[in-house]
Design brief:
Chain lengths: 243, 243
């Protein structure tokens, strides 16, 4: 049986303008691979209502689980929660449990829960909150869409809150062999191996170090015995490979 | 007049599995911003024919310029060129000028231009080659889609080959103020400033250092005098801001 499928939507002008280098995609990809959920697609869009709503609708229909990052803070360009409500044709308002979390947090810090901060308690009708142990303002899950913060420390904490609730499949396991030959010499035998081991996917990632061309060849499978026999075949085909 | 729009398509299982952290998106985003082309969307898909073809068709219709990275090497999982041909309903075959480039390159290295390496000379009918000063195997432009390598050094070199051929708009310029207050205190005034300066976009990027909450507020515009007056208004609203 195929593993559950997932997509990610990264929201933020700062990524597309090159100001900020996204870190959340790489983190989520690794976490999902470990629990056997296949990240099939990632999209990055700007802080634009039409673009966000369309992407949420498309991805949530096409994949079993969707994760978003960005756009749930207190400022005017944080429009993700409203866009999620619009995408699912539901209402959005300040919710009492979310407001209570923020009130306690800001009372403790001696800060006012002003109108801007209260925006972070706006939750679409029907959503479930996602715990934020870093800075309290919650994320939420609306149907199959998990809405999380863009700040990497908060994103990671929210992913940790969400992962136990997800049902994964067979974790993808992999083995890497380093072959100090040009990718063009590796490609032919690798193609044959690929046909002979249909349950294993082979990837080749070339490198060049001090003028030496080579490639890391990665075999991936969720079937450990299939992976084992593929690696043995790889070693036969490339006796000079290093683990 | 609005700046030209662009999208990027990153192709590769290694990104979605978390094995490799993509670097090309951040690089391209910065380069396009400098020449006044608005990167509106990025998608990441796996080495899957159906997914690549659909994304190329959608993005090339929706945006003025598209850039792809990945999947043009010699191995069996390098299927981007074939997918581009399919997306534009054209044929693909080894092309003589591309083959000649590779032949000279491998002759010089004393390596055989074998069947796998010859795959890198397969170019869709009607495409124009993109120069690769790093490792010779060319990229290509098919209609408005620029097809480039995934290896970051090669990607950068190909971007440098392509940029002079692109017509940009007004470069986006920006100014950043560091404000040592919680984002919830910044959000209200920032929202008013945003309404008062319609040609400037304001972004707020929170940080937390040693327990101090603050945010970098970035004002962006392609109109330098609008940016100047927005920054003056920002300084008035936040007299404690640091440049």
């Amino acid at each position: 049986m195929a593993n559950p499928s997932a997509a990610m939507l990264v929201i933020g002008d700062e990524i597309l303008s090159g100001r900020t280098r996204d870190a959340n995609m790489h983190y989520l990809a690794g976490q999902l691979t470990e629990i056997g959920i296949d990240l099939k697609e990632v999209r990055v869009v700007s802080d634009d209502r039409v673009a966000i709503v369309a992407a949420v609708q498309e991805l949530s229909q096409r994949y079993e689980t969707v994760f978003t990052s960005g756009g749930i803070g207190p400022t005017h360009d944080d429009i993700t929660a409203d866009c999620i409500a619009e995408a699912f044709a539901t209402t959005i308002d300040v919710r009492e449990d979310a407001r209570a979390l923020l009130q306690t947090h800001y009372d403790r810090q001696g800060l006012e829960l002003n109108a801007a901060r209260l925006r972070m308690a706006r939750i679409p009708e029907g959503a479930a909150l996602i715990d934020n142990p870093v800075s309290v303002a919650p994320g939420f899950r609306m149907k199959n869409v998990h809405v999380m913060a863009g700040v990497p420390t908060v994103f990671k904490a929210m992913v940790a809150s969400v992962l136990p609730s997800l049902t994964g499949g067979d974790p993808l396991i992999s083995a890497t062999l380093r072959i100090n030959r040009g990718e063009g010499d590796i490609a032919g035998p690798l193609s044959e191996l690929s046909l002979a081991h249909p349950n294993v996917s082979f990837g080749s990632y070339p490198f060049q170090n001090d003028g030496i061309y080579g490639a890391n060849v990665v075999a991936r499978s969720s079937d450990s015995s299939a992976l084992k026999s593929a690696v043995e075949a790889l070693r036969c085909a490339f006796p000079d490979a290093e683990e």
